[in-house]
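Predict the structure of Amino acid/amide ABC transporter membrane protein 1, HAAT family.
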Amino acid sequence: MSTIVLLTLTGLGLAALYFLVASGLSLVFGLADVLNFAHGLFLSVGAYGTWWAAQHLPGAGATGFGFVLAVAFGVVAGAVVAALVELVMIRPLYSRTIEQVLVTVGLSLAGVALLQATWGADPRPFPRPAWTQRVTDVLGAKVPNSGLLLIVAAAAVLAAILLFLRYTRYGLVIRAGVENREMVTALGIDVRKAFTLVFAIGGAAAALAGALGGVYFGSVSPGQGGSLLIFAFIVVVIGGMGSVVGSAYAAVAVGLLQQFVNYYGTSGAGDVCVVALLAIVLLLRPQGIAGKAATA
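Done. Here is the predicted structure for Amino acid/amide ABC transporter membrane protein 1, HAAT family.
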């Protein structure tokens, strides 16, 4: 029983990490119709921003409020970089899909190279509060606190995004834009501001994933964002492009499947099963779990 509880909670922790990355991807594609392959860069900016702030920012550190301040610095850095990327590189390329892909892929590669040139290619030890390195007893299972932190953070982000989309003016614009961008534009609403805001929100969520992922893994490296981005794209496709709730469902499915199969099967079998799940969803329900079927 304790093994099942441990695998379930660690799987949910992994799912939470995937969701934090995938939520921004889903929003960006749903509103702006942009496949942002540079999204992993925002995660790396958040991770390295938190790592740097914990050592150099006055008042920040690896304990208590100092760690919260370091994470906040990383999240703000990720949001600012995401907004700048949208304004400078993506905005001139809307409706030009091939150019978008080329630019975002190139930016992702350039970002990794810049991080390697600045701080080296080797993983760096990540500053972690002492309590995140301990475990909590849950029904007889010793569950790492870092995984529980991810679950709480992902639940808070999901709730915040849903409340924002439902009860704020810009949230209503984004929801309407996801449903019918042409109609929103025809009503005289400038959706470009919403595009920038969505990129900033997605960048902040990815940066938070980078910061908490550093706590989870215990280190940070330049290529960390790219490896997590692969599974985030899988989550977005399975959940339904543009659906944040669908991404949450898909992240849980992917995280649990990966964790259980890797434990009871051979190493790496979980990744294979995740790809198999993606193929099944694309064959049986191409629009994803919560996506809407395309109409002629």
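Residues 2-224 form one domain.
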